[in-house]
Amino acid sequence: MKKNIILKLLLIPLISANVFTIISLLSGFNYYADIICNFAFQFFIIQFICLLFTSNKYKKTALISLFIMLLNLYQIIPLYFSHDNFTEDSKKNSLSIIQLNIYRDNKDYPSVKRLLDKYKPDIFLINELCPDAATYFSKELTDYKLKKLIPRNDFFGVGIFSKIDIKVKDLYLKKTSTPIINADFKFDNNDYSIYFTHLASPETKTMFDNRTAQLQELTHIVKTNNNRIIIAGDFNLTSYSSYFKRFIKNTSLKYSRKGFGLQNSWPTFTPIFRICLDHFFISPEIKVLDRKVLEPIGSDHFPVLLYLSK
Questions:
Q1: Which residues form the Endonuclease/exonuclease/phosphatase domain (predicted)?
Q2: What mean pLDDT is predicted for residues 237-254?
Q3: Which CATH number fits domain 84-308: 3.40.190.10, 1.10.10.10, 2.70.150.10, 3.60.10.10?
Q4: Residues 31, 17: Cα–Cα separation, whole Å
Q5: pTM value > 0.85
């Protein structure tokens, strides 16, 4: 009797995960569906666990749930395949980039400095850069000979520190006046362009529409640049979103996370709800040697490290 009650109770999260997964399929048409779709991995875990216990007793429900669960798995599996081969020696001649959303109110700047001293990236990209952080890192990051900082008191300050020669200019997304740092440089006799920004968080329908407009503007920027492209930043959307997939398709860029797994980067404080918001998109001819989510530094985001081949 007690076992039957437990099995019936397990149907509640199972059916709920099924319903949310179906709603997620409408992410390209509905604001709420696009928010829900970000948790495809969590829905998959719920479905998998519940099916382990309920499939024998509730066979019809289990069969339907299995099919719906596979819809989530279909989006997760590609993240574990199709990356470029690398060795530890190849990293020595690579281009390394760390991007970090430091969180505007995080004052643990020494932890960030220790992280950079440990991994020694060629380029450091920082989001949510406030004036205090800009002052600290300008003084402390002496290994970086070139920099461009756009500190702000809101959540959209950005900055770049570089050990290699770069030509930097700042752009602004027309819809929201959100800054983008554009850095051009040569690497292995090829011309590269980095674009680094922080897109709007879709907390309201208006902000959701702003993010959509920002993605469209970024698409236009990519299409008008013949250099090898690296786009980085906190995009406030995941790879499960229709808008994310549309951006990949329209720009013909490669997603750096493929082959390296989930690599969820936000939030640091609740692992069960963790998703990937911090992304690198690169031109197809660029090889990704390695991609890592690094240790926490006091922010609600984890830093992300990328190694690119010469």
A1: 99-301
A2: 97
A3: 3.60.10.10
A4: 18
A5: yes
